[in-house]
Amino acid sequence: MKKILIQFDTDSLPSSFDRVVAIDSGVDELFSYGGVTPENIEPLIHGAIFTRSAEELSNTAIFISGSNVEAGERLLSKIQDTFFGPMRVSVMIDSNGSNTTAAAAVRCASKHLDFNTTEALILGGTGPVGHRCGQILAAQGATVRIASRSEERAQVTCAEIRHVVPEAKVVPCEFSDEGVAAAVDGINLIIAAGAAGVQFLTGEEVEGIETLKVAIDVNAVPPVGLEGISPTDDAAEVNGATSYGAFGVGGLKMKTHRAAIEKLFTTNDQILNAAEIYNIAGSV
Amino acid sequence: MKKILIQFDTDSLPSSFDRVVAIDSGVDELFSYGGVTPENIEPLIHGAIFTRSAEELSNTAIFISGSNVEAGERLLSKIQDTFFGPMRVSVMIDSNGSNTTAAAAVRCASKHLDFNTTEALILGGTGPVGHRCGQILAAQGATVRIASRSEERAQVTCAEIRHVVPEAKVVPCEFSDEGVAAAVDGINLIIAAGAAGVQFLTGEEVEGIETLKVAIDVNAVPPVGLEGISPTDDAAEVNGATSYGAFGVGGLKMKTHRAAIEKLFTTNDQILNAAEIYNIAGSV
Amino acid sequence: MKKILIQFDTDSLPSSFDRVVAIDSGVDELFSYGGVTPENIEPLIHGAIFTRSAEELSNTAIFISGSNVEAGERLLSKIQDTFFGPMRVSVMIDSNGSNTTAAAAVRCASKHLDFNTTEALILGGTGPVGHRCGQILAAQGATVRIASRSEERAQVTCAEIRHVVPEAKVVPCEFSDEGVAAAVDGINLIIAAGAAGVQFLTGEEVEGIETLKVAIDVNAVPPVGLEGISPTDDAAEVNGATSYGAFGVGGLKMKTHRAAIEKLFTTNDQILNAAEIYNIAGSV
């Protein structure tokens, strides 16, 4: 029986990135839908769960993609509400690549840090990747500062993380020119996950953080967020910290993405979101 | 040469149900189009008939899907007008699953009844499945009452059935609380094909029909149309009649659907509509 | 590693013609996008170039289709601007079948003529196929008259051809009832590439051109542009000239189309436009 992956994308043209990776993960047939909303998805879910017997449903799976993470979460919620009893298929959500990128970035950091004693700063912490980096780190026991130009947005993200990880030690952190010294005080890990073209810290500023051990920048397009890190850095020593650039993280991200899709087809009852994808990233 | 099925769906997002079944029927490549209309379909038909030699065209076929049966019939008409000489491919129409569901439901009844002496009542007889159940039964020689809350709509459906089956013995039947006794008088077969959530008859009312032999309800979502029938009933004795629920009919529906798609690829000149699909349902 | 072709179509429903040919050319996976514009294509290009290693990128390719040739050229331009360094895949453009049809038509003519001494007349010379026939002929050394009812449009096409082929000997030619004698004076080759249903010349007029050696009509729907030519003519003698109809050209067009798609997957740095596709047509 052929392995069918049904891609539900919240953008009008479904992600070609996720389509190529699906094929390279061994999917036999890929059905790609664009412009999917909670309003139009129900018959498509019925088509997934009513076409094969309960025993065969591990050969059908759903992948949620698109640039808008919140829109993707709304689809996931509607999908879970529509499943019933054994009539369900496994689902992976990776809108904007946020889960696989965050999982890989935190895994890179984990090679060098004990998260139970780690103070982490997430720059661009309210964006899709930053948000999930913070969530995964908090679930692993780290203390996390969610930085944003807007303290209000940082507070919202902290609250959302606590909703998923009740024991999370997360604090909002307004990141402005005057606030840099306080924001970086005592931190061991920085992850820069901001928009393309925003430089958060100069090389000198990074070098000045004496407690810093690991610096990660997931932006591939120069200028990167942490001056001095090159996209190809892969555990390189830069500005006195073990550093990873976007492609350094990217290798693990791609392996994780492929392994997660393969895992979808082992049973029909999995929901692969941030925590589950972080676990997968640890075993690829 | 690969077997290519081109799905033309009248809804904006093409049916995932029909896509999964197409793959499970052995189609090699499936091209799925949503939002197809008589106005935009012509170049897509040309692409089907002008890309392979006349001898090879049995490897290309068309499947019409979508929730609106009339819109599907308009596509079929435009497709037939666009074909010419040997430049044609085989076409199956199963908008809303109406043909495969109706064919399977009537086949279930045929195991227990001689249609030449059968009086049938179709509840929800003007809907897509009810309409085709009535048409197939009439073509098989049964006398058919097409029931609807609106006698006018029932008359329209009867006229449409007579257009396809000139010798059809069909009569419209206004189905209201006062009219139940007359509607069920002397019938041997009931098929309930109404909208989800509408109960047409109580178990007591069904039990009271002394001439009744077979009762079929194609609705999977409770409450079903004939009280007492369970979706999983498969020739079960309920309320004194041999009864079938949605999943009882569904097994044969799926086999019929797959067999019809396989048949598309045996020649390039078939039109598989209600009558042809009923024939297929008899040999799976 | 599977060969993935990504089809970017400028029409809302992607060409089924080009989809069937892609499958028949041995593509393993085909991703078809409709409604693609320079504004929404960038993430789709990134998905093509960022998902496989540079060494593997010859297994991914792009095909530009759609009825509007200018819109296709704008996509090509945006695609080339988005590629950088080794991050690129091979691209073929064949909007409206214009390149493969023109390449095949000119190849048919080349069997009978030395283009260095050929005077050619392109009827419907400003349309997609006519434009590319003129461009390829000019690149091969022929003197080309681009005929149109509007001399202004013919001048624009001549300028566009000279932009691509600076040494082109092309002249605009207003084609009206009074101007026929001047337009056909001394020509050796006519290619009729106008809209369906337009007859440019009667059989008598064609027969009266004493210098004429080859006549080609790429229109498949009667009435064709050159009276007397049948769509199935394949080097037939008609009105005193060696003549080709649409299907006579079509066999070579299809072989060229398939060979060009196969060639896409040999390296990751090709752009297959009119000139490259004409070369391919010479070796199939």
TrEMBL record, chains A, B, C:
Key word Metal-binding present: no
GO molecular function: oxidoreductase activity
CDD domains referenced in this protein's UniProt entry, alphabetically: NAD_bind_H4MPT_DH
Every Methylene-tetrahydromethanopterin dehydrogenase N-terminal domain range: 16-96
InterPro entries, per database record: Aminoacid_DH-like_N_sf, Methyl-teptahyd_DH_N, Methyl-teptahyd_DH_N_sf, NAD(P)-bd_dom_sf, NAD-bd_H4MPT_DH
Keyword terms, alphabetized: Oxidoreductase
Entry-linked Pfam families: Mpt_N
This protein's name: Bifunctional protein MdtA
